[in-house]
Amino acid sequence: MRHCMREDPECRSCFIGLELLNRAQTARDWKLIGYRSGELKLFNIANDKSETTDLSDKFPERVAKMKAKLIAWEKEMNMFEYSGFK
Fold it and tell me: For position 72, what pLDDT does the model report?
């Protein structure tokens, strides 16, 4: 796992490994969860702490940017082929 916030407070993003073969990436108030099926969900964790409202359709640019970072992290960790993200 990368602990970016500890290494660089300006980065303000952190990668989190989740159970059930999911991946997630946070950036300030946002959290993108990627499922092994390839499905992506975006949450504003500042306003929706229970992560009940998927905002991926409302913020496609944010999803694309965060997804690119998540894929880059997977490649760095040699997990890219494993997740199914596209």
Answer: 82
Query: Whole-prediction pTM value?
Result: 0.71
With beta carbons less than 8 A apart as the criterion, state whether 40 and 32 touch: yes
Give pLDDT tens digits for 63-80: 999 988 888 877 887 775
The domain total for the chain is 1
For residue 73, give the amino acid letter.
W
Enclosing domain of residue 8:
4-83
Report the alpha-carbon distance of residue 53 to residue 77 in Å, rounded: 29
| Contact (Cβ atoms closer than 8 angstroms) between residue 67 and residue 85 | yes
b vs e for 49-64, b when ≥16 Cβ sit within 10 Å of the residue's Cβ? eeeeeebbeeeeebbe
Question: Residue 35 — φ and ψ, nearest 5°?
Answer: -95, 155
The domain that contains 53 carries what CATH number?
A: 3.30.1120.10
